[in-house]
């Protein structure tokens, strides 16, 4: 859904020539890679959280998500078929060939796996990403959740940044604070971040079109890569800290 929202928002103001959609990484491969990085116990806790807690939160949050979509005029309609191109991965030779044939002025990234340096250097234009967190302190996933979990609400927000070969380490263009309400929870935080992120993403595109795109000096020095919480981390945060 987020890719549809980003496409429709940008396309309303600018001409998006094509949306390149990559297949999801096979789940087994993803899990094995994550176990190698984080260990079996932690990944098992993450899987339990997603299988049990996330499903409950998603079911309870349908009305709230509809409110966020309506209040922020988010367009969730599908991308037209003629504007989509499916690829196996963002990092394949097929994708590089496609990008070079398009010769775009600007590439907007949303929800892909880490983009290789080979892809980033295959065309001359910049890549811009909207990240659901305040970087560099909250790289990875679920930046608002972890900020609240860490009693760091002032760093709950969203970042628009240039993409480099690292994970959410590119130079910052804009950042915006996100304040969840009482009706929000882990399931709705990313949608709130997306709604606010679209505002600064459109500002970034406008600045680029006017040849005025600039990056900001990093205010935070702490840099941490965050992952999905485990089921025991979430339950501790919910019971002890009141973080939903």
- Rounded to the nearest angstrom, the distance between the terminal CA atoms is 22 Å
Derived structural class: alpha/beta
CATH superfamily: Formyl transferase, N-terminal domain
Principal-axes geometry comes out as: globular
Secondary-structure element order, as H and E? HEHHHEHEHEEHEEHEH
User: Mind telling me the CATH class?
Assistant: Alpha Beta
Q: What is the makeup of the main sheet? A: 4 strands, mixed
Low confidence ranges: none
Radius of gyration using CA atoms only: 18 Å
- Main sheet: strand order: 3-4-6-7
CATH architecture: 3-Layer(aba) Sandwich
Summarize the structure in short.
Helix content is 44%, strand content 13%. With 244 residues, the protein is α/β, with parallel strands linked by helices. The strands form 3 sheets. The protein has a 4-stranded mixed β-sheet, covered by helices on one side. It has a two-stranded parallel ribbon with strand order 1-2. A two-stranded parallel ribbon has the order 5-8.
């Amino acid at each position: 859904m987020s890719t549809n929202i980003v496409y429709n928002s940008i396309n309303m103001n600018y001409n998006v020539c094509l949306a390149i959609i990559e297949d999801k990484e096979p789940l087994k491969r993803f899990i094995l890679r994550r176990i190698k990085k984080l260990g079996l116990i932690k990944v098992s806790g993450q899987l339990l959280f997603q299988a049990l807690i996330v499903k409950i939160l998603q079911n309870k949050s349908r009305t709230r998500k509809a409110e966020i979509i309506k209040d922020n005029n988010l367009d969730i309609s599908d991308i037209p078929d003629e504007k989509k191109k499916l690829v196996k991965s963002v990092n394949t030779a097929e994708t590089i060939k496609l990008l070079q044939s398009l010769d775009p002025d600007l590439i907007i990234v949303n929800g892909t796996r880490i983009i290789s340096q080979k892809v980033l250097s295959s065309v001359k234009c910049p890549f811009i990403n909207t990240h659901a967190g305040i970087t560099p302190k909250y790289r990875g996933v679920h930046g608002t959740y972890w900020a609240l979990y860490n009693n760091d609400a002032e760093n709950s927000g969203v970042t628009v940044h240039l993409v480099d070969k690292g994970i959410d380490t590119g130079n910052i263009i804009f950042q915006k604070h996100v304040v969840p309400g009482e009706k929000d929870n882990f399931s709705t935080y990313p949608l709130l971040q997306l709604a606010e992120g679209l505002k600064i993403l459109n500002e970034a595109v406008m600045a680029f079109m006017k040849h005025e795109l600039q990056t900001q000096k990093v205010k935070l020095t702490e840099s941490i890569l965050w992952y999905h919480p485990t089921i025991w981390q979430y339950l501790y945060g919910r019971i002890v800290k009141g973080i939903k």
